[in-house]
Design brief:
By secondary structure, this protein is an alpha/beta fold. 28% of the residues lie in helices and 24% in strands. The strands form five sheets. Strands 2-1-11-10-12-13-14-15-16 form a nine-stranded mixed beta sheet, with helices on both faces. It has a seven-stranded mixed beta sheet with strand order 7-6-5-3-4-8-9, sandwiched between helices. A four-stranded antiparallel beta sheet has the order 17-18-19-20. Strand 3 (66-70), helix 3 (75-86) and strand 4 (90-93) form a beta-alpha-beta unit. Bound molecules: adenosine monophosphate. Adenosine monophosphate (AMP) binds at residues 185, 232, 302-305, 324-329, 333, 359, 416-418, 430, 433, 522. Adenosine monophosphate is lined by residues 185, 232, 302-305, 324-329, 333, 359, 416-418, 430, 433, 522.
Amino acid sequence: MLGQMQDWPLLVSKFLTHAETNHPKREIFSMLPEGGEFSYDNERMAKRARQCAQALGRHGVALGDRVGTLAWNTHRHVEIWFGASGMGAVTHTINPRLFPEQLIYIINHAEDKVLFLDVTFVPLIEKIADHLTTIEKYIVMVGKDHMPETSLPNAVAYEEFIGAEDGEYTWPAFDENTACALCYTSGTTGNPKGVLYSHRSNFLHTLVALAGDTLGVTAKSVILPVVPMFHANAWGIPYAAAGSGAKLVLNGPHHEPDVLHRLMMEHGITVTAAVPTVWLGMLKYLEATGKDTGKMEIVTIGGSAAPRSMIQTFQDKYGVRVNHAWGMTETSPLGSLGSENAAIQDLSDEEKLDVQCKQGRSVLGVEMVIKDDEGKILPRDGETSGRVMVRGPWVIGSYFKHAGGEILDEDNWFDTGDVACIDEHGYMQITDRAKDVIKSGGEWISSIDLENAAVSHDAILEAAVIGLPHPKWDERPLLLVILEEGKSVTFEEMNAFLTTKVAKWWLPNDMVVVEDIPHTATGKISKKDLRDRFKDYSFPDA
Ligand code: AMP
């Protein structure tokens, strides 16, 4: 027997209609890549999103066509998101930090029909435009007055593109399983692979993002998603803002701590989210200037492990609650988040901090287990570690165009490539990426735990640990550190410090002070590059 409720397809255009109807005057503020700032409200944003949909339709974009965006977080980018997906096309957010060859591969593989790009990326795309085989039109995200001279074929200024439309447009209804957005993720081997979200998956993901224990977004929130829209849907925040009535503040191309801080103060930001490197810079800035975090209540940190010292400083010094979250492009991205549950609420502050350093509990809608290499589900005892496997309505089923073939096991679990343990209360703790774990004498050493321990030393600004070949132990850890300005620490001092934090046999066999630590296009430490850089290194005791 079927239920007898309405069939109301879960489409992302519904967020926009909700925002426009119920929070019409709620503000959206944006910094602009061409310079300056802009602010308006949901009502005007929704109208311009409809104009964008109309313009795309007029230029031949139809259901299922891919619409590329190469852009920072701006109001125009939000309009395109809603406009393109809302009309049934697929918004393909492209990471501008990728190498030109990767951009060419991704754009051609996605078969983007049009490309929206920030004015700052025009020179980059001009250089590769001859290789982009499917793009029929380039739309530069500026008004006519900022439109540059360009060799890009069929280029038009965004304001002209949408300005020709009247916004009298009704969002079409279609199957909620229709593709909505596309985001490529680069693995360590092979070409980047596309993760193709559906309207249904993004809609359900947003409902959970808005749950009380998740990002902390309410109708009263003022939210700054520092995390870029090209990085796993900005963790769903633009949808969550429209769905809740929160004010959205967009930092455009600016990631400098002083600019982010100004936005925090001027707009009274209450909720924000980004990878640890952004917060590392911010905490340093606050320390140096003696400034505070204003009205900030909650910061979500994810994408890489949030160091204990970072969580502690935010909470103890600035009174900002930290949500340590885990996820990946393949999980839309919310997988788990470390809000308190009843079992830990009465623990001491130190014990709570231990829990917060973990990557959190699965959110409703994401099933999570850890399995050994034989596929056996391992106990939730907080010690046994295995491969993190997930499944759920916003977890990937297969990559775009079936790249990589079948990716689920016989019970539909997706192997995340992360290694973790899960405790009795459901808190998962990543110990490593499967490929970064250091295999020493048949045992595993967690490079992430070692890094976290090392950065809690006050002479260390950033730390990375890689496993390198060792004749006796197979692999041993090498610690690479960037020092805080004017501070120093010897290898012996560091190991004496680490002895209080990790098992003795985990201690690095050497430490090298470096000027920089390479990061991937999504802000993670690039272990691949570090292993390449140190491929000729040999340990003093080898
Ligand atoms: P991406 O698809 O680029 O977002 O990368 C996803 C990967 O980032 C995950 O599989 C993890 O390895 C890593 N990651 C995400 N969040 C965390 C976290 N809180 N702690 C440690 N690693 C994380």
